[in-house]
Design brief:
Elements (H helix, E strand, L loop, with lengths): L21 E5 H18 L2 E5 L9 H7 L2 E4 L2 H10 L3 E5 L8 H7 L2 E4 L2 H7 L10 E5 L25 H4 L7 E5 L8 H15 L8 E3 L13 H15 L2 E4 L3 H4 L3 E12 L3 E5 L3 H4 L2 H4 L9 E3 L5 H4 L4 E5 L8 E7 L8 E5 L19 E6 L4 E6 L3 H5 L4
Parallel strand pairs: 1-16, 2-3, 2-9, 3-4, 4-5, 5-6, 6-7, 7-8, 8-9, 11-13
Antiparallel strand pairs: 1-10, 10-11, 10-15, 12-14, 13-14, 16-17
Helix pairs in contact: 1-8, 3-4
The protein binds pyridoxal-5'-phosphate (PLP).
């Protein structure tokens, strides 16, 4: 997970202006990110799609559509969202495609990408093949770059994509493109190696296809990302292969463009000082537990390996959510001004893989969602969730 201490723009945001908890999207930063992606697309002559799985905030669909070429969906519901709420092209890839979703996904999508040659073999007779939707195949170059197995689609025994050894004898008539995704929060060098490995493993088949989708997983909008290296690499790749090329970042679109506002509900001591806040790692920022990583909190220094010495420091506080899960811990921080009950805090960089993953475990309320325009300091609360959001998913 990105650890860059960005989102410091939120130092200029008064968290009392929104309900708590609340995801606040920084529209200015979002547009800066989109501008970088549009620049890469323009210079490299590739098309960039927003991966909806990371960030599906359709309130900003017009802004996204001003810069990107469309969206990438993971199944029928995201495809519907992409087609009805967002602009541009729609590419859909679902590892587990259901037969009764097939025709509807196909009607919604410009590209439909199959996960295995077997899946394509089963469905090829059922697709309309009327030329409106192009069919692709996810390939798996078996080249691992991701740092944790949780995010490594190229690990042995992976279900994601066709490995080189399995493609040799396949009849891919009707398949016009390939899709590869194997990175997570990484820079240019891993992408460069992945692309070389992909060319090496599947380049022999490139003559039979027209396009390739090179996935997401790159921090394209991070301050230190070498966009010009990527542009050069993609231009050379395109010149050599002639393939129409797509990227589908999620994280990079909303990187550092949001914070989760939370309020301190209680404080206490048990070997060390802790605070219970009204946002939850497990419900509202699950990657904190799954990845795992410790998010930055405005005004606090993250203490990665806090031990006994820190526990005795009155300026150190371990923040945890309001659920029963012992591990619902956001992190341990040293604060200049130690937060007290009723104080508001901002957990930084929480726009992606948060709203799309949030749950109501323990009956925990879902955070509201707000848009903040830093240029004119206007705040618009675009969504608030009540008890119905919890009850509506239960029976
Ligand atoms: C197929 C595919 N494309 C794109 C993405 C977006 O990746 P990121 O949000 O890391 O850019 C993912 C993330 O899991 C993915 O699985």
């Amino acid at each position: 997970m990105p650890t860059a201490k960005a989102g410091d723009a939120f130092a200029g945001f008064d968290p009392a202006r929104v309900p708590s908890p609340c995801y606040v999207i920084d529209l200015v930063k979002l547009e800066e990110n989109l501008r970088i992606l549009a620049h890469i697309a323009d210079r490299a002559e590739v098309e960039v799609l927003l991966a909806l799985k990371a960030f599906s905030c359709f309130a900003v669909a017009d802004l996204v559509g001003d810069y990107l070429h469309g969206t990438a969906a993971s199944g029928l519901w995201e495809a519907k969202l992409g087609r009805t709420r967002f602009k541009g092209a729609l590419h859909t890839f679902a590892p587990g495609l259901k037969q009764d979703h097939l025709r509807e996904i196909e009607d919604l999508s410009d590209h439909l990408i199959f996960n295995t040659a077997g899946q394509w073999g089963r469905f090829r007779g059922e697709v309309s093949a009327d030329g409106r939707c192009a069919y692709g195949l996810r390939i798996n170059p078996r080249h691992s770059e991701a740092e944790t197995p949780l995010y490594d689609p190229c690990a042995p025994w992976s279900r994601l994509g066709v490995p080189p050894t399995q493609i040799a004898d396949e009849d891919l008539t009707g398949i016009s493109g390939f899709h590869v995704h194997a990175l997570c929060d990484q820079g240019f060098a891993p992408f460069d190696r992945l692309l070389s490995a992909t060319e090496k493993a599947f380049g022999g088949r490139f003559g039979a296809i027209d396009w390739i989708n090179l996935g997401g997983g790159q921090l394209l909008t991070a301050d230190d990302y070498p966009a010009s290296d990527l542009i050069d690499r993609l231009r050379a790749f395109r010149a050599r292969t002639g393939l129409r090329t797509y990227l589908e970042p999620g994280t990079a679109v909303a990187l550092n463009a949001g914070a989760l506002v939370t309020e301190v509900l209680d404080t206490g001591w048990n070997d060390g000082h802790f605070a219970v806040v009204d946002c939850s790692a497990t419900c509202h920022m699950p990657d904190v537990i799954e990845a795992p990583y410790t998010p930055d909190v405005l005004g606090g220094d993250t203490l990665a390996d806090a031990g006994t010495a820190e526990a005795e420091d009155p300026s150190v506080l371990r923040l945890g959510g309001p659920t029963c899960l012992a591990g619902d811990v956001i992190g341990t921080y040293r604060f200049g001004a130690v937060p007290a009950v009723g104080d508001r805090l901002m957990v930084l960089d929480q726009a992606y893989y948060t709203m799309v993953k949030a749950s109501t475990f323990n009956g925990t309320p879902l955070p509201a969602i707000a848009l903040w325009d830093r240029h004119n300091d206007k705040v618009r609360i675009i969504k608030e969730f009540g008890y119905e959001a919890f009850e509506g998913r239960l029976s």
